[in-house]
Amino acid sequence: MSIAFSRQPSAFKLMCIIIMPAMLSMYGLVAIVTVFMVNDLGMSESDAFLINGAASAFSTIIYAIGGYLADKVIGVKRSLIIGNLGIVVTLLLLSYAASIGSIPLAMIGIAGGGVSRALANNCPSNLISKAYNKDDNRIDSAFTLYYMMINIGSCVSLIITPIIAHKYNYAAGFSIAALWNVLTIVIYLAKRNWVKEIGSPADFEKINFRTYGLLLLGLTALTLAGSWLITHYELMQVLLVIALGVAFTFFINYMRKESKAQQKKMIVSLVLLGFSVIFFILYKQMPTSLTFFAIHNTRHEFLGIPFDPVSTQALNPFWIIILSPLLAIFYEKTSANGKGASLPLKFAVGMIFCSLAFLCLSYGAYFMADAEGRVSAFWLILTHLFQGLGELLISALGISVLAQLVPNHMIGFTLGFRTLTLGISAVIAANLAVYIAVPKSAGAVDSLQTLPVYASYFLKVGIGAFVMALLMLFTAKKLDSLIQDREQEEETVAETAN
């Protein structure tokens, strides 16, 4: 792993360093926000699931705006700083809302966090994309290693933040999440010369105070509007579909201006983004159905060691950390030997693993539960292992797909477009999870009643993922041929020019 890491450019190394505290913050919020809404704010599970999905949908709409601002208005590097400052402010507001039990302030904090992350979160991957040539064989291993660093931060946060929230309170958990973003800003400012030569055109232009003032007013207005929208799930879903349609139209218009050779690769990127939607529907089960299955139907000890059921979300990044360096080395060796699997084939294999994740959990729920309706944590461990393998083959390579298949001048916009597809996934996942939400009541949850509901749900999800995996396998060869045709055309053009 150290060899693969050392061969990367300085920009990549800096982004890997700052992404860890950023993810400690982000996944600290992810770990506790849904449970916080149920336990502290008194919401039902179904309302909490839907608000969580609506908040994800809202933030993904704003991500497209964030990508545009980074590329065309304020620059990627300024977006990184301003976005992280906004995250600090909104997390502290969320902490205060938790301390007084205010639902309106909590919604402002959640929405404001989404707006700020729209500016900040795509910036590291954007800068990494600009640090490599399209034909650089280090790029798959680079994004795999980068994904590992993301998951180191998320793993630690998903373990410690629920413990802090339960031992002290949710306000403390949100405050500590804010401090991690402060560290992100400090590290970046200290080492910003590592990325001084790369960025969007806007990074190398001066920005006046009027632009900053308009930006602040816009972010504030978006935050207030978002705090209302995320509590109106149906409207938020309609707006997301409209935003996705607009972004898709822009993407097609951009594509038409490219050469025929480039258009083929962009078509492949669209198809693979569509496949990614299915993966993220499965991934978004982590803070909803998987977490609440851990709470209601999993024994809260493993090998005699007790654990917080909310912290089982850390199993996913744990496996990512273990598997990422192995895959990064494998990618480099197979690429060097000319035996690397195509991107479409990697996506298909990843979906097979995702299918196995839910099928094995369904098996455990159906056949391995005890008399109290609870199963061993082993089944969650196995589920997250398969899910982690699928994530590395689909999500970790998702940005790599864009870096390789989309022109450099479209990277920022396309990252925002990709994030909109994640919003669709979050909305669908939230609506699916509502079917297994436990109705709000004053009494304790009966594990024997929830067990068959979860077992049936996971079985259906697993079968659906398997059907999609078959479709991806059938189309992999055709998609790869489009990529190869494009590369052959580029070589022909280059030879003609010489």
Task: Report what the structure shows.
Helix content is 79%, strand content 1%. It has one domain (9-493): Growth Hormone, Chain: A, CATH 1.20.1250.20. Mean pLDDT is 82; it is low at 490-498. It has helices spanning 2-6, 10-39, 45-73, 76-100, 103-120, 123-130, 139-167, 170-190, 209-229, 233-256, 260-283, 286-297, 315-336, 343-367, 378-394, 398-405, 411-433, 447-497, and strands at 301-302, 305-306. It is globular. It has 498 residues and is an all-alpha fold. It is a multi-pass membrane protein. Keywords: Cell membrane, Membrane, Peptide transport, Protein transport, Transmembrane, Transmembrane helix, Transport. It is found in: Cell membrane. Pfam families: PTR2.
What is the compact description of this entry?
The protein has helices spanning 2-6, 10-39, 45-73, 76-100, 103-120, 123-130, 139-167, 170-190, 209-229, 233-256, 260-283, 286-297, 315-336, 343-367, 378-394, 398-405, 411-433, 447-497, and strands spanning 301-302, 305-306. The protein is mostly helical and 498 residues long.
